[in-house]
Amino acid sequence: MKYIKQVLGGDLRQYTMVLALGLLIIIFNIISGGRMLTSSNFQNLLSGNAYVLILALGMLMVIVIGQIDLSVGSVAGFAGMVMALVAKNYSIPWWAAVLVALAIGVLAGAWHGFFLSQLGIPGFITTLGGMMIFRGGVIWISRSISVPAPQELKWFGSGYLPEWGPSFTGMNNSTLLLGIIGIACYIFAQIKKHKHSGDATGVKDPVWALVVRIVLMSAIIGYFTWLFGSGRVGTSFPVPGLILLVLTIIYHIITQRTKFGRHVYAVGGNKAAAALSGVNVKRTYFLTMMNMSFLSAVAGILFVGRATAAGPADGTSWEMDAIASVFIGGAAVSGGVGTILATIVGGLVMAVLNNGLMLMGVGADRTQVIKGFVLLAAVAFDVYNKKSGKSSIIGRLFANK
Amino acid sequence: MKKRTLLSMAMAATMMMSTFVGCGGGREGAGDAASTDTSASTEQTAEATTGELPGFEKGATIGISLPWLGTQNWKEAEEMFTEQLEAAGYTPLVQAADNKVTQQQQQIESMIENGAKVIVVGPVDGSQLGSVLEQAKEAGVYVIGYDRLLENTTGVDGVVQFGSVKTGELQAQALLDGLKEKKGEGPYNIELFGGGPADPNAPNFFKGAMSVLQPYIDDGTVTIVSGQTDFTECATVDWDNSKAQARMDTLLSGFYSDKEIHGVLCPNDGIARACITACENAGQDIPVVSGLDAENESVEWVWAGKQYSTVAKPTEDLVAKTIEIIDSLQAGNGMPATDVTANNGVIDVPVYELPPVVVTKENAKEVFANDPSRLELLK
């Protein structure tokens, strides 16, 4: 057990959900007779859930600062609808329509941010107002009729990376390249980390643990590279998945490595202390809310691209999916705690659950019930652990004797 | 549909290795059987002959994706499809999407994954399934629209529905007949209601109805007191009865405080009942109201004389026609011939139109003669 702990590197609690995700995938794969782990299913899984996961990225930061944003679905629907309408009515190129939609997102976020940071109105109220305003707006400008979107957008919502190079690889070379880059980055990061591992304690991590960790992770990345890359010719790792991947990396760096990121956690952990130590609380609030609505617009664009038309009901209750992902990922309701990567895992748990139950032919009714229980269980588990100061079940398994 | 049957995570490492030496399973292109992957080659032979309409085995999976089960006709469709497809020897996979577009997209994808040969889609929003349906098409699945047109996509082989313009014409004609019968000679004060704008049928119902009503509006026999005659003004978002009732309440208090309302054009039974209730609450005599779907409650109301008419679009006719098409596909005969097409914004889709039936108190017993559960209501 001690050895396993050395491989995984310290904090085991963060792996609970990853483990649950892995188990879910395997169990569903067995029950559905191998239909879960197929190229096309995973391509669909990512294309179909990228928008929720993108919302979850922004929602994590909002929840970490101790707020909530209820308007994301409405803002996403509004931005998508404006995009479809301007492209159709003013015959401007599709990319200009996308820019308009992103600008709408930023403006909507600034609106929410203004009320929260300058007037001190709680985010819940501000964004509840926003939810009604933008939902009404979508219905108003669309007159409740769906509007077809520019064809080019389909590439963003459900497109694939190009095919090129030799065919002997047996898979999509764009995906292969992506996988190789991923593995290379991981190895590089791990070696760099290992060099500094003894700096504080004077005891370096054992080299064998490093090697095992790299081999394991490379195997997993390699496997998924193969899974995504070896589907029908013309398919690859999906474009919305790539957008999600890039955004995840960017936001991981923002929250973990930048001054702004530290401010977000500081404000969420203890607002007064943060203010006293020179953190600009208002600015942090404003930027976080603005960022959230910006990401809502991105999600709205991807969704419209995939649906090929913007509809008046787009975005209804997306906020709830995003919030659930964040909490399943272990963020604290009181703010200050939670990470981007855990949120993505939380979102994937929901997505896999949805997808797996659907493959098994379970109806929407029962799926909803099951998802509700999973959310409750995940948060209860977290709260219980914190209250009693105990490590998780997994943590206890690996406890040092 | 080709699937990589990859069974266990335990194989992960092996797979990765094979990836890098380049001898992993070959990839299959649509209709491209050049693959060296032997395990999948049997599936491919069937596919390579797509040009000759190969048909498929009798026990094949048939996916049925319905928008929701919140109204009687969809619930009936769910039951009938399950029973009749099973009886015909197919493996039905019937799901409902809770009126959410995303849910329906994912359901259709999972039907493709489950190897469905035909997917029948009653869309939540006919224009928002573009990519998934094209994906189904690429996978060699036949896509049949059920009850509503599938717009904005090339991924549709045909649509089975009741003629929607015709339905609107029948509704308006029934309204005029009812006015003459119940309210004597005109002029009549009436109001217009439309269905949910996301449903491509709704504007057509309205168009059909207006084509019948317009001459009477022009010669003054019929007056629309509120002046709201545009579809977008009259539409009822999501076919939501409560929204229709709220609009009727507003119209009554705004325009009919000193007038009598004689008739309401209602696009379906739920809205018809909402309008009747609103008129009762406002102290008006019950107006002549049209409807659609022959829901149980409205059949009772028609029998009791509260709702003048409804239009039956018997679900069993739709289901029977759909299964007839599935049988033809199964036997390798392709889509049956039809001379009606509808442009869905991208292509012309073959339409299999069925005639709807007007139901009033007079003919209710005949119309439902073969429908024991509804006949039961006529007492």
Write the layout of secondary structure elements.
The complex is a heterodimer of chains A (401) and B (379).
Chain A: H1 2-8, H2 15-31, H3 39-64, H4 72-89, H5 94-117, H6 123-142, E1 147-148, H7 154-158, H8 173-196, H9 207-229, H10 239-257, H11 259-269, H12 271-276, H13 281-307, E2 309-310, H14 318-328, H15 340-359, H16 364-388, H17 393-397
Antiparallel strand pairs in A: 1-2
Helix pairs in contact in A: 1-9, 2-15, 3-9, 3-10, 3-13, 3-14, 3-15, 4-5, 4-6, 4-13, 5-6, 5-13, 8-9, 10-11, 11-13, 14-15, 14-16
Chain B: H1 12-21, H2 41-48, E1 61-66, H3 72-87, E2 91-96, H4 101-113, E3 118-121, H5 130-138, E4 142-146, E5 158-162, H6 164-183, E6 188-192, H7 201-218, E7 222-224, H8 231-234, H9 241-255, E8 263-265, H10 269-281, E9 288-289, H11 296-304, E10 309-312, H12 315-330, E11 341-343, E12 348-354, E13 357-360, H13 364-367, H14 372-375
Parallel strand pairs in B: 1-2, 1-3, 3-4, 4-5, 5-12, 6-7, 6-8, 8-9
Antiparallel strand pairs in B: 10-13, 11-12
Helix pairs in contact in B: 3-12, 4-5, 6-7, 9-10
GO cellular component, one term (chain A): plasma membrane
Keywords (chain A): Cell inner membrane, Cell membrane, Membrane, Sugar transport, Transmembrane, Transmembrane helix, Transport
InterPro entries (chain A): ABC_transp_permease
Shape designation of chain A: globular
Structural class of chain A: mainly alpha
CATH class of chain A: Mainly Alpha
Distance between the termini of chain A: 10 Å
Strands of the largest sheet of chain A, in order across it? Answer: 1-2
Protein name (chain B): Sugar ABC transporter substrate-binding protein
Region (Disordered) (chain B): 27-49
InterPro entries (chain B): Bact_Solute-Bind_Prot2, Peripla_BP_I, SBP_2_dom
Organism (chain B): Pseudobutyrivibrio ruminis
What does it look like?
By secondary structure, chain A is mainly α. Chain A has a single domain (2-159, 238-395), classed as ABC transporter involved in vitamin B12 uptake, BtuC (Orthogonal Bundle). Chain A has 17 helices and two strands. Chain A has helices at residues 2-8, 15-31, 39-64, 72-89, 94-117, 123-142, 154-158, 173-196, 207-229, 239-257, 259-269, 271-276, 281-307, 318-328, 340-359, 364-388, 393-397, and strands at residues 147-148, 309-310. In chain A, helix 3 (39-64) packs across helix 9 (207-229), helix 10 crosses helix 11 and helix 11 packs across helix 13 (281-307). Chain A is globular and about 60 Å long. Chain B is of the alpha/beta class. Chain B folds into two domains: 61-156 and 315-354, Response regulator (Rossmann fold), CATH 3.40.50; 164-313 and 359-375, 3-Layer(aba) Sandwich (Rossmann fold). Helix content of chain B is 42%, strand content 15%. Chain B is built from 14 helices and 13 strands. Chain B has a seven-stranded mixed sheet, sandwiched between helices. In chain B, helix 4 packs parallel to helix 5 and helix 6 packs across helix 7. Chain B is elongated. At the A-B interface, helix 2, helix 3, helix 7, helix 9 and helix 13 of A face helix 1, strand 2, helix 4 and helix 5 of B.
